């Protein structure tokens, strides 16, 4: 099984790229580990698509290089530019870009690797496009077209997947299933994915790494969990929905209540909605900063199932909202973030170093945990 | 209903116009693709040369063909020596003349359609591992079908009606190079043959109409396949 | 200055231009020559073309015009021409007179063609057909003909060596540097090659009358002679 | 000020439409009130876009009619079909559809009503496209193009706005601003909006009414708050992120802590992050079902600022997840939904009719409240 | 360098070809639009009729023009009676002949481009309140500029080189209807005038090349404006 963020393999994709596009200048160096999902996150117009295009070879940089594993794909200095079709990349464009003259099946098989043939049926049913196979793209709905585009890219068995907001326009369930599929895929086939999204929930669900882009520059880059703890980035990381993740081990299944018990590495336990993984499996739990309440001691007679003893590492005003503070908690060697109103913080007289109970409702855990 | 000579002229015309389109189709598409999708030195020159048959009076083109492809022409000489091929006075020569005259029309139409093909789709095909040839044959050309059809039908019509270059280069030999327009011309130059001329005129029109209808039908089918939701 | 529109057969272009240039030098008049094939000109005149004078390369189209009730007046035969057999300049074919012992077909080689004007309507072609029939070579040569759109086209094939032999007017043969005359067809092997002239304006201007008269005169005829024409009343 | 869902004005848009598209058949009757946002929600391929197209007049129905106020736009029986350009509708398509030969400014002004001219600058700066005005659309980023498309439709001053997933591909902040703008606009100009979205948060933030579409049929339609209380729809309404809304009155601003105090109509009080509205204003608070914890009595020493006394109307198993139950609460004449684990529910021995404290964290309130 | 007669022929050719394109431009676009965007009865027939000038030998077209537009023709008679206009044997007549011959080329190219315009954009314009005329003039035609240019340049080239129909309908009158190709014909008819003919030939080529370059330049500009990010 694949290990978590800690065990970052050597960089699979390594690029340093400079390009001037009109008034916009892109200047980014990025290394992406050889497996797992790297999310590109940034405002509209910050240069995410431009970066993907340079990596894919759809544009030539003014300067810089792109390397994938041991292959050099682009090197301006050496005047090297491997043509797109020999880069073995899968690209999901921001728009669907289906071939209008091929049926859906033809679109899917256009670049299909022979080895992917056995996955075809599964993928098609996962995407929910079985009944569309003989349709021409002109009549597909927006979301249907997107799904075909995703399937088309996945079936090429690429060495790197570049996905530009692939799941926009899909409904919640389908999105969830596809996210799970992608995660499973990165785990099974071990290819890196560079994933552009504006949706922090989506990113939290899928990404191991995060690259934060602003105005054509990389302003932060690293394991998602680390960046999620950085208050200075709260604003940029979607503020309201910020979340942190805890690593835990599956300890017990409670079939009666359909819950699973997990153990953090400091020994504390949590109850979460049932996770269908074998006992002993490592899981990552996404916990929204808003979903963590603090108490001096475990209250009784409430619906709270989970209280974690933690110590306060830091208390900082939210850069985003004058009414709240962000509290950084430490549980063993893991960290957790909570958001309180300033008033509550004052009334509870919270101080750095204090020990508190972090209250987390069982229902607050996304099923997205893995 | 039709006389033998008329049937002969019709058959010959179809054969010659068909061959003319046949031999220029591939080069025409290739040149159109070059012009539509590539930048290179001398592009304007090539573009200009292509249009010469359109710009010059056909008789002049025929004369130039004679100069180059005639048995004593620089190219014709070579053709005759090495391949034993002699074009003047043969239906093949008429097909060459028709093709040359039709070439710019074919190229222009195909080029126009190629330029309208969305390069985004070509790029997408590239990311799916298709090399430029696969892209050309699976994406670009199929999407340019309307232009290919228009180009082919224009070329066919032009070759079918070709007169000046043909008579100059391939002469007007019954059963060999006397196509419908040549036969028509012959009649029109003869006092009192107006009704016979009118017959041939109608014949030409019928043939052209049929080829046109066929191409329209094909184009409509091609378009219907691509129909999106906004019509 | 007055204008006179002269519709003349295309084969007269050179000679006519020279004649006009000479005439205009001594007369204050603007002679406008319009050249096309005789048939085209005849049709245009029948459809109301503003022609003052029409010179046809054969009598048929002049006859046709009269049949169309065109205002043909003062019709007269102006010039004569001769029919010659030509070969490329560098040709090895020896001179001979058609209708004699040497057959034309024997000089064509295995696959050579005889270049003529289209024998059904191009005047030179019609005369060529008559001539060949009268010397008894028509049947042998008919499948070996290359029919040109006009005399010039027929000659181009010979000039370029595509055809080893061709039949054109003497005037054409004389004008070209690239062919030589192999022989002249006997005058009696074909109908006389005459260029009839007529005034077509029902109300001709004085300038028209004057020019028409001048055309008939010695000055004009001497110019035409230089281009290989023979005056009709020369013999 | 506009009243809430209760005061539905007479139907502004009224349509009954039937159309066969290949194998897909659409058969929907829908009435949209004369102001406020009606969200169209449904899976990908359920027929949302097809419905909008019929309303806009881009397609002709096989049967049925479309009426807007007193105008009949389509009536099959009467063979009436008002051409698109005379319908006075604003349409934001699922794709941007900018005119490639006009600059951004030209796109925006193409259909601009003279009366909208004074709004031009404001809208442009709200959309963040000031610097793009002289650019041609070919070079815009995905999100930039979308924003121009939105601006273009808004500037026509339509009598009905049809928006097909307008905010996909936009980052959180921008999305938020635009949502606020749309809400303000419906309040100020009183035009109805039909709004397609897959994002439940977006819908909760903007919609007054909800129309649930499935396989070409309308399966539920009504005020958003009512539908949000219906458990049978939980699954379809995005499950995990379901939320309910409370109506309250602004009572006090606490400038020190940047909080606002609001009063529910049963007199109970809540503290929420400051809302910039005058005292006395009606506000609607969106509360995620996961954000409501229950307690027998108000716990002390916790970061909870808000405890509302409520009675349990009903307890039902979640259709969606075996580990949780949904608890419907009543506060005066308002209703609130909470989600608990089944285990917590059993341990607390919750019963219908019981009185409990609903714990809601102040930080859980979306700034989207209005 | 050039003789007066040559200058005259050039000026005349430009005037005639320009007028020819001028008068067919609007009707050509209108017809192309009709064919590209509408279905109606007799569409195939109209389409077929349009192509006649392409299919028939030019001389025949010229003859048909003479029959219909000549002073004794049914239309020409009417024109002369009511408007005092007489087309045959005038430069206007030559422009008519050139225009008629060029018409199908113009229509075809424009139609091809119009059909390539994305109807989604037209629908979007509709939702923004543009009626069909505004849509036509602000969306459809501007986006069809490549086709308009191609059509115009093809038509111009065709009109510039028009010979058969012109000499038949408008005759070969110096200063009136003796365009470059007719002058060229006149020279070519005359043995020994090859070099003079070659001069005119080169002149024709130069003029055509210039018009071609101009159109290419315009087309390139138009295309660059629309450039998306995938090239
Ligand atoms: N050819 C160009 N000329 C000028 N500006 C350009 C050009 N191409 C791109 N840009 C600008 O570069 C910026 C980055 O574009 P890019 O498409 O990479 O953004 P993005 O991060 O993908 O945004 P989005 O989330 O909206 O898709 C945008 O502001 C865009 O307008
Ligand atoms: N011409 C057609 N022929 C066959 N099926 C069609 C046609 N047009 C639309 N459909 C089908 O109708 C269904 C509804 O399409 P529609 O675009 O309305 O979906 P939607 O609700 O907007 O979905 P999305 O959220 O993915 O955009 C889709 O399944 C689509 O494939
Ligand atoms: Mg982008
Ligand atoms: Mg849709």
Automatic annotation (TrEMBL), chains A, D:
Stretches assigned to the ABC transporter domain: 3-240
Organism name: Salinicola rhizosphaerae
SMART domains, alphabetized: AAA
Transmembrane segments: none
Listed GO MF terms: ATP binding
Name the record gives this protein: Molybdenum import ATP-binding protein ModC
Protein keywords: ATP-binding, Cell inner membrane, Cell membrane, Membrane, Molybdenum, Nucleotide-binding, Translocase, Transport
Superkingdom of the source species: Bacteria
PROSITE patterns: ABC_TRANSPORTER_1, ABC_TRANSPORTER_2, MOP
Record-linked InterPro entries: AAA+_ATPase, ABC_transporter-like_ATP-bd, ABC_transporter-like_CS, Mo/tungstate-bd_C_term_dom, ModC_ABC_ATP-bd, Molybdenum_import_ModC, Mop_domain, P-loop_NTPase
Residue ranges constituting the Mop domain according to the UniProt record: 301-369
Pfam families registered for this protein in UniProt: ABC_tran, TOBE
UniProtKB/TrEMBL annotation, chains B, E:
Keyword Nucleus: no
InterPro entries assigned: MetI-like, MetI-like_sf, ModB_ABC
Domain ABC transmembrane type-1: 10-214
Signal peptide interval: none
Ranges annotated as spanning the membrane: 12-36, 48-69, 89-114, 135-157, 196-219
Keywords noted in UniProt: Cell inner membrane, Cell membrane, Membrane, Molybdenum, Transmembrane, Transmembrane helix, Transport
Protein location: Cell inner membrane; Cell membrane
Membrane topology: Multi-pass membrane protein
Job of this protein: Part of the binding-protein-dependent transport system for molybdenum; probably responsible for the translocation of the substrate across the membrane.
Family: Belongs to the binding-protein-dependent transport system permease family. CysTW subfamily.
NCBIfam families xrefs: modB_ABC, PRK09421.1
Name of the molecule in the record: Molybdenum transport system permease
């Amino acid at each position: 099984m694949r290990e978590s963020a800690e065990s970052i393999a050597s960089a699979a994709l390594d690029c340093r790229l400079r390009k001037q596009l009109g008034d916009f200048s892109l200047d980014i160096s990025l290394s992406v580990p050889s497996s797992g999902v790297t999310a590109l996150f940034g405002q509209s117009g910050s240069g995410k698509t431009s970066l993907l295009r340079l990596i894919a070879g759809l544009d030539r940089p003014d300067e810089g290089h792109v390397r994938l594993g041991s292959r050099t794909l682009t090197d301006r200095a050496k005047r090297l530019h491997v043509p797109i079709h020999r880069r073995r990349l899968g690209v999901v464009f921001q728009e669907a870009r289906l071939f209008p003259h091929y049926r859906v099946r033809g679109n899917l098989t256009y670049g299909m690797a022979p080895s992917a043939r056995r996955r075809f049926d599964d993928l098609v049913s996962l995407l929910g496009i079985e009944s569309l196979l003989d349709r021409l793209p002109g009549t597909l709905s927006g979301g249907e077209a997107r799904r075909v585009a995703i399937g088309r890219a996945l079936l090429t068995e690429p060495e790197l997947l570049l996905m530009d907001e692939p799941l926009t326009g899909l409904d919640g369930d389908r999105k969830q299933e596809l996210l799970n599929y992608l995660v499973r895929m990165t785990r099974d086939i071990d290819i890196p994915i560079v994933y552009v999204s504006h949706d922090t929930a989506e990113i939290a669900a899928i990404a191991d790494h995060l690259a934060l882009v602003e105005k054509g520059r990389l302003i932060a880059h690293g394991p998602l969990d680390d960046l999620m703890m950085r208050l200075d980035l709260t604003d940029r990381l979607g503020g309201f929905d910020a979340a942190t993740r805890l690593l835990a081990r599956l300890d017990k299944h409670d079939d009666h209540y359909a819950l699973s018990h997990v153990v953090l590495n400091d020994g504390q336990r949590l109850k979460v909605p049932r996770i269908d993984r074998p006992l002993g499996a490592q899981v990552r739990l996404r916990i929204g900063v808003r979903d963590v309440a603090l108490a001096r001691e475990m209250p009784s007679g409430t619906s709270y199932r989970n209280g974690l003893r933690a110590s306060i590492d830091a208390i900082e005003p939210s850069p985003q909202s004058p009414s709240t503070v962000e509290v950084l908690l430490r549980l063993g060697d893991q960290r957790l973030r909570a958001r309180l109103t300033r008033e509550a913080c004052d009334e509870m007289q919270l101080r750095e170093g204090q020990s508190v109970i972090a209250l987390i409702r069982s229902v607050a855990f996304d099923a997205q945990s893995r | 209903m039709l006389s033998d000579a008329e049937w002969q002229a019709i058959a010959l015309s179809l054969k010659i116009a068909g061959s003319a389109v046949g031999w220029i189709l591939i080069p025409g598409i290739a040149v159109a693709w070059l012009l539509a999708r590539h930048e290179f030195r001398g592009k304007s020159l090539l573009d200009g040369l292509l249009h010469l048959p359109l710009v010059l009076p056909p008789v002049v083109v025929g004369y130039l063909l004679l100069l180059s492809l005639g048995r004593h022409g620089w190219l014709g000489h070579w053709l005759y020596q090495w391949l034993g091929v002699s074009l003047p006075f043969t239906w093949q020569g008429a097909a060459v003349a028709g093709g040359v005259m039709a070439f710019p029309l074919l190229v222009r139409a195909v080029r126009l359609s190629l330029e309208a093909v969305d390069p985004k789709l070509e790029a997408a095909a590239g990311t799916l591992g298709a090399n430029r040839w696969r892209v050309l044959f699976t994406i670009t050309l199929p999407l340019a079908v309307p232009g290919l059809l228009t180009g082919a039908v224009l070329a066919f019509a032009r070759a079918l009606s070709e007169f000046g270059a043909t008579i100059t280069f391939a002469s007007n030999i019954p059963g060999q190079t006397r196509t419908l327009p040549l036969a028509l011309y012959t009649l029109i130059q003869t006092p009192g043959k107006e009704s016979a001329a009118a017959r041939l005129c109608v014949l030409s029109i019928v043939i052209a109409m049929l080829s046109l209808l066929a191409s329209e039908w094909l184009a409509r089918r091609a378009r219907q396949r691509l129909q999106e939701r906004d019509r | 200055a007055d204008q006179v529109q002269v519709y003349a057969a295309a084969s007269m272009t050179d000679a006519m231009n020279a004649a006009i240039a000479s005439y205009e030098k001594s007369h204050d008049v603007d002679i406008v020559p319009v050249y096309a094939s005789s048939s085209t000109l005849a049709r245009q005149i029948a459809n109301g073309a503003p022609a003052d004078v029409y010179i046809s390369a054969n009598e048929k189209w002049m006859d046709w015009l009269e049949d169309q009730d065109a205002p043909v007046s003062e019709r007269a035969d102006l010039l004569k021409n001769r029919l010659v057999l030509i070969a490329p300049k560098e040709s090895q074919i020896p001179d001979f007179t058609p209708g004699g012992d040497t057959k034309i077909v024997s000089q064509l080689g295995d696959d050579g063609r005889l270049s003529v004007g289209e024998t059904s309507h191009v005047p030179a072609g019609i005369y060529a057909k008559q001539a060949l029939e009268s010397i008894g070579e028509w049947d042998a040569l008919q499948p070996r003909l290359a029919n040109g759109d006009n005399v010039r086209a027929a000659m181009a094939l010979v000039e370029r060596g595509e055809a080893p032999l061709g039949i054109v007017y003497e005037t054409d043969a004389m004008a070209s540097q690239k062919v030589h005359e192999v022989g002249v067809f006997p005058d009696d092997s074909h109908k006389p090659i005459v260029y009839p002239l007529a005034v077509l304006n029902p109300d001709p201007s004085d300038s028209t009358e004057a020019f028409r008269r001048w055309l008939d005169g010695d000055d004009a005829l001497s110019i035409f002679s230089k281009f290989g024409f023979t005056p009709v009343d020369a013999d």
